[in-house]
Amino acid sequence: MSNKIHRCYVFSGLIWCFLFVVFCGAVCAESATRLADKSATGGQESKRTMQLPKVKFYLFGMGNRRKFLYRDGTLFDARTGEVIRKWQVSEEKIIPSQYTVLLKTSDGKVVSIEEDEKAVWLEDDRKRISLTEGHINLPNFEGHPYAGFLRILHQEILINIVDSKPVPNFFVYPKPWYRDGAMVAMCLQKTDNLHLIKPWILQLDDPFDRNNAGNQEADNLGQVLYLVSLAGDANHPVVDKVLRAIPQFRKGKHIVGMSDFAEHPVYQTKWLKFGLRTLHLEDNYEIPAVFDSYSALFWMDFKNAHIKDSAFSQEMARNYPYLVWAEAHFQGWPPPMLLEEQYPLTWEANASQAKYEGMKLISQEYVDRKICAPHSWHAAEMFLFLLDYKP
Question: pTM score, two decimals?
Answer without folding.
Answer: 0.90
